[in-house]
Amino acid sequence: MSTHAKRERLLLADLLEAAGPEALTLCNGWKTRDLAAHVVVRERRADAAGGIVLGALKNRLERVQAEFAAKPYEELIQLIRTGPPRMSPFGLKQLDEAANTVEFFIHAEDVRRAQPDWSQRDLDPVFADVLWSRTEKTARMLGRRAPVGLVLRRPDGQTAVAHKGTPVVTVTGEPGELLLFAAGRQDAARVELEGDKDALARLHTAELGL
């Protein structure tokens, strides 16, 4: 049975392929080639991927990622499509779902929404609920650097507190949009915001996400 992570992986590969290696993305300073290299290194080079979260390994990560970015773009796309090597922990379906569903969804939107003619994706209700579940579980982590109180709210009224504090900004939108907002893509997320003017301005420029 196909998993959400597998579907998002293939969609990301298709979007990267269609955009070409030099297209802009929502990841600051990264073009599509850089984003593709990041995805491959994260899955295939555990010795360097730790630099995503550990400052001590940052230089190694940047060096290895640059080496992969120098490879033929078509090779990077194929490595993303085929997935991690057999011995990689990401090859386990449960870990793949847990670690890659959100990762690939966000990066697919990083590619899609950086293009001038992008259109919003229609998510099926089951997948929307999966994204909301992940957003609820990681809300505090994603919103930990918010300069104001931050509440994420679905149109049906379900809420998640991403950051405690005052004044409070409430962000309302569909699960995928809330996830993108909380992951630092505030400009690209289609959401409605409620709060005082100063709080909205501070949140707009905040470095949210991991």
Automatic annotation (TrEMBL):
Alphabetical list of InterPro entries matching this protein: CHP03085 (IPR017519), DinB/YfiT-like (IPR034660), Maleyloyr_isom (IPR017517)
The protein in question is named TIGR03085 family metal-binding protein
What is the organism of origin for this protein?
Streptomyces argenteolus
Instruction: Report which superkingdom the organism of origin falls in.
Output: Bacteria
Taxon lineage:
Bacteria, Bacillati, Actinomycetota, Actinomycetes, Kitasatosporales
